[in-house]
Structures are given as C-alpha cells and as structure tokens.
Specification:
about 350 residues; transmembrane; globular; transmembrane helix; MetI-like_sf; MetI-like fold; 13 helices; membrane; about 75% helix; mainly alpha
C-alpha cells in the first residue's frame, strides 16, 4: 500500500513538473513573442531605462529576457514552486496568484456543487433506467438524457439567461453577489451568493447529469449479466442484498474513475458558463486574459486548471483501493489471475463481498 501511494505521488509530481516546463516554453512559442511585444510597448511608452524595462518584464513573466535560457528556465520553475507566477500585464499592481486566489473559490463552489448534484441525479436516474431497462420510462429517459448530453452548456446558459433574466427577470444576469450586501459571513451575503450561483450551477447540471445516467445504466446492465450475480440469485439471496453487495459497488467502480476525469471537463466547461453569466471565476478571468493577450495571467489559469485535475486524479487513485483493495496489492492480483477457474467455487465480485 505504501509503495502504491509513493508511486502515485511521484507520478503526480512528475506530471506537474512537465506542465510547468511546458508553460515556460509555450510562452516562447506563442506567435508574436509576448515578451518581445511587451518590451517594445514599454520602449514606446518612454521614460524607462533599459534596466527598468528588463525589470518590468522580469516582474511580469518571472524571467530575465537577457539571461541564458537555462537560467530563465530554472528561475521560472523555482518561481512556480514558490507560487510566484508573475504579474498580470493588464493589472501590474497585483500578482497572478492574487487574482487566482480571488477567483478560485467561486469556480470551486460552482464546479463542486454542479458535480455533486449532477453525479447524484445521474447515478439515480441511470440505476432506475437499468432496473427498468425494457420499460417506457427507460426508453423516454434514454432519449431525454441523450439529448441533454448533446446540447452544449453555453446554449443552455444563453437560454436560461434569456428566459429567466430577460423575459421574466427572476434571477440576476451576472456577478457573484449583489452590490447592496456587505461581503462577510452574514445571512444576506450568503443568500445573495447562493442566489447568484443558481443559474451557473443549473446550466452545468442540465448538460452533465445525462452523461452520468447513461454511464451508470451501461455499467449496471453489464454487471446484472455477470456470473457472480446469477450465482447469488441462484443461492436465494434477497434482491436488496444482491443490489447493494454485488451490483451497486461493481457498477460504481468505473463511475468513480469518471468522477475524477470529469473535474477537468467541469473546469473547462466553467470557462463558457462563467463568461456568459459574468461570474468572476477562473474561467471568466481566463477568457479575459486571452482577449487582452495577458499571457502571464493566461498561463497561471492554465497551470491551475491542470494542477487541479492532477490532484483530483491523485485523490481518486488513493481512494480507489478502498473500493477494491486488490488494486494496491499486485500479489493479490497475480494470485487471482493464476488461480484456475473452479465451477464449484463461489465467484467473488470485484468490489463487493460474498453475502
């Protein structure tokens, strides 16, 4: 178990290091050379010496343009490790880390709540579709969730904005909270935050729970036909025990993996949703930095999204052995693979237990 955890930690740190390195070289490969463009802009403004121009560029990109590439690279990596990602070009009075720290809680709230709600609804609907797979309910829900899964989130965001903020004016059209409340841990502020987050969360849930439902239905249907389920039925076990110990846990295994991978998609989808709802999260600032060619802020947002996905995958890798202990025990997997099949022996489910 310890070696399993160490391997996952080492792999995650290696991926983060590769992402930081890629972000360093991407700045230089971008068309127009952002550092050269900033240097030319500062020269045109006038009033700055050559040393001051190099200091401004160094403050923005955390590198010294005149230094050798290897020295720039080491300084950039060391700065990223210490949390120094430079300063936004459009707002030199603050730092990229400060902008991200201000925007990150809003994105985490919307993504986390949307993911939990869509996961719970999707798993419940998918389980019901699998349990009643030949009924009209299953056929109707399959059409509905397939249609919603194919609709882009930004189209749902536009529809919600038009109907609920323009036609009926039920919800606000933008912002994270009202201007008439005082930020802090007080009732009016909390209510205003939840009120402003309803539409971004709804747009994300509507377009994402269908994928969970279809995945859960396919996983549960495949498990229902497994030999260990038929063996449990032949032993006369109750439907409730078979559902909990055999079907439920084994159907959830692939869904847990998808839950980690979906975090990256949810962060990516938040870019469009936060932009349309003018919600001040990471996606909102990322789109702004792209439009304003603010490369330092852009790379900071990109690095944060990538690292968050890696950390989430790491957490799921560490939780996965709790669902199936054989994953962290190669010897147990080898013994199970080498063991000959015995028709008289009870067949154990992958993640469940024999009742």
């Amino acid at each position: 178990m310890v070696s399993y955890i160490l391997k996952r930690l080492a792999m995650s740190l290696l991926i983060i290091y590769i992402v930081i390195s890629l972000s360093f070289f991407m700045i230089r490969l971008m068309p127009g050379s952002p550092m050269a463009a900033l240097e030319a802009q500062l020269r045109m403004q006038g009033g700055l010496s050559e040393v001051e121009i190099q200091q401004r560029i160094s403050a923005v990109y955390s590198v010294t343009p005149d230094a050798p590439v290897w020295e720039q690279y080491l300084r950039y990596v060391w700065g990223a490790v210490r949390g120094d990602l430079g300063r936004p070009i459009t707002n030199p009075g603050t730092t990229v880390v400060a902008v991200i720290a201000e925007a990150l809680p809003w994105t985490i709230m919307v993504v986390a709540v949307s993911l939990i709600i869509s996961f719970v609804i999707g798993i419940a609907v998918g389980a019901m579709m699998a349990a009643f797979q030949n009924s009209r309910f299953s056929q109707a829900m399959t059409f509905v969730v397939s249609f919603l899964s194919a609709v882009p989130s930004y189209l749902v965001a536009i529809a919600l904005l038009y109907v609920l903020t323009s036609v009926y004016q039920v919800f606000p059209s933008g912002g994270a909270y009202g201007i008439d409340v005082t930020p802090g841990f007080n009732g009016p502020y909390v209510i205003s935050v939840l009120y402003h987050a309803i539409l971004p969360i709804a747009a994300s849930v509507i377009t994402s729970f269908g994928g969970w439902a279809l995945g859960m239905k396919g996983s549960a249907v495949s498990v229902l036909g497994a030999e260990y389920v038929r063996a449990a039925e032949s032993r006369g076990l109750s439907d409730r025990r078979i559902t909990q110990s055999y079907v439920g846990r084994n159907s959830m295994l692939p869904m847990v993996t998808q839950l980690a991978l979906s975090v990256g998609f949810m962060f990516g989808g938040s870019v469009f949703i936060e932009t349309y709802f003018q919600y001040p999260g990471i996606g909102f600032y990322m789109i702004q930095s792209v439009g304003q060619r603010d490369y330092s802020l852009m790379m900071g947002c990109f690095l944060l999204i990538t690292v968050s996905v890696i950390i989430t995958n790491l957490l799921v890798d560490l939780l996965y052995p709790l669902v199936d202990p054989r994953i962290a025990n190669p010897a147990a997997r080898a013994r199970a693979a080498d063991q000959p099949a015995d028709p008289d022996q009870e067949v154990l489910p992958a993640g469940g237990s024999m009742a």
